[in-house]
Amino acid sequence: MTKKNPYIFALRAFFVCSPWSAVIATGLTLVVAVIPALTVLVAQRLGAAADGVTVALAALLIGSFAIIQRVSYAFSRINAQYLRVYSHKLFADAMLKVDHSAYSQLSFLESAREAKEYLAETRLVGFAQALLNIAAAVVAAVSLFVSLAQISVLGALLCVLSIFPSAIALALAGRYESQAWGERSKHARRAEYLESQLVYQHSGREISFAQFGRSFTEPASASWRSWLGLACGLEYRSLVADLIAGVVTVGLLVSSALIVWNTGDSVADVTAIIVALLTGSSVMSGLGYQVGELALAIPSTRRFVDFIQASPTLPPRQNNAAGVGGDIEVQNLSVELSQTPILRDVSFTAKEGAVTAIVGANGAGKTTLVNALTGMFPEDISGGHTLLSSATTSYLTQNFQHFELTVREFLLLGNTHPEGVDAAACHEALDQVDLDVELDEALGAQWGGRELSGGQWQKLAIARLLLQDRPVWILDEPTSAIDAAAEEHIFRMLKTRSKGGEGLAPKTVLLISHRVSTLAIADHIIVLEKGRVVQEGSFEELMVTAGPFAELFMRTRQEEES
Fold first, then answer.
1. Neighbours of 550 (CB within 10 A)
2. Closest C-alpha among 177, 176, 172 to residue 291
3. Most CB within 10 Å of its CB: which of 4, 30, 100, 187?
4. Residue 512 is inside which H or E element, if any?
């Protein structure tokens, strides 16, 4: 795929986000750019032979200059708001295309966070605006040179050259910024993450109660100090460059004025150069700054463009086994993370229309197994297995996100046809898990809504899975915060739903739990220990056989009774 040029990308975004405001802003900016040259010509005529028309024209140009400039700025600001929203849409569209396996790649996460920070700093807005202002300054410089060259070519040349020292100085500052931007961003993101834990309800409450706030504020302060050191170093370099550029610029402007004074034929010529310096400087003085802004934004804009253009999805890998009907088949599956074996030669079949349970002690590899089946570790897997698609699989993770939406909105997340799910279907799903909430009730005290317990959140997530009604259901510790009686009720409901019937298609249910005492409802149980399958069979078969499952069952029962 050919990479987009950041300049073309920024200009296209500038005009696409709001064509009308972009055209008006561009037109007015260019009109402002040529007014100084026109004013010079009128000033010469005014000095040579003043008449009513010339005086009126001079007054009109000088008076309209500030008005048009302010209107131009206003439309530029309006367009900037459109561009800011448009850039967020580009980011959102790019994130929608991301395959879930990409979230296992640190490089992708780093790029995504950089892109989000780029949006927060509105750098695309500054980049596009800088391009427009540079174009206007160039037009102003060329038109001024043409008008002043009639008096003195050398004076006109020096006047135009006076804008370049600042441009060069800020371009150098942009180079320094591009070199330090990545490191500064890391320090800022780390500090902001630590500080954000203090302001959100759940994390803030825990930190305040246990009084370990300093464990967040002190590292955050250290990160900000590191950021400050890099930022001040950049500013000191820029200050030195600006001082040198300023001295050179003043010298060029004074030289230009003296040359025109000595070569001019009349007071009109001197008046013209003074008018040129006064009006032209307001247009061209920002050129150096805009070049600097452009130089500062180029590296981050290029990375942003690369991020939204590149597809973070991974190439499909070869699977040596394929699903038969709705079954999940795994043969000799191994997973190695950071050169550490997590799963070793795991083989089993989860049948359609049945509940297959994966059990084992903490750290046995249960969650890793499910992550492998759903493609979370694409580069760390060997062996064959059915690669489960999000289009056919509902996956309730162990640490699912408590999205603070309304109950209805939460229930419809991930539903392919949310408009076809009516209130009756939502209430039926809630009844299945015995949860009494209102559909339009807001969730989360942070937004003024209802605060649910851990068990209620799990029930709500299971109800969402029921509404999605996909062929494969995977539940990773779905009832860890639910009492034993409610847990048994939910597991039996899941078994009933897995069989299908009454117009419902059968499901392939993969259930992960460390509570072996509630797994009597499972049709088949896989026992993992240190990443290997050490036993499998029905609950009754495993209980009458001496082995890890019976030992785990007795240990769990004793823990529950104690």
1. 16
2. 172
3. 187
4. strand 508-513
Mean pLDDT, rounded, for 182-211:
79
**Pair (297, 379) in one structural domain:** no
Longest dimension (CA), the chain: 116
Same structural domain for residues 301 and 360?
no
Say whether both 414 and 516 belong to one domain. yes
Asked if residues 304 and 144 have their Cβ atoms less than 8 Å apart, the reply is no
For residue range 230-247, list pLDDT tens digits in order: 888 877 887 787 788 778
User: Which residues pair with residue 525 across a beta bridge?
Assistant: 357, 537
pLDDT (tens digit per residue) in 271-322:
666 666 666 665 565 565 566 667 667 777 888 888 888 755 544 433 333 3
Token pair belonging to 82: 């459109």
With respect to residue 323, please indicate whether it lies within any of the assigned structural domains: no
- 401 and 263, same domain (yes or no): no
Give which of 367, 75, 439, 384 is closest to 376, Cα–Cα: 367
SS (H, E, C) 253-321: HHHHHHHHHHHCCCHHHHHHHHHHHHHHHHHHHHHHHHHHHHHHHHHHHHHHHHHHHCCCCCCCCCCCC
Query: Percentage of residues in the chain with pLDDT exceeding 70?
Result: 81
Q: Are residues 295 and 377 in the same domain?
A: no
Residue 314 within a domain: no
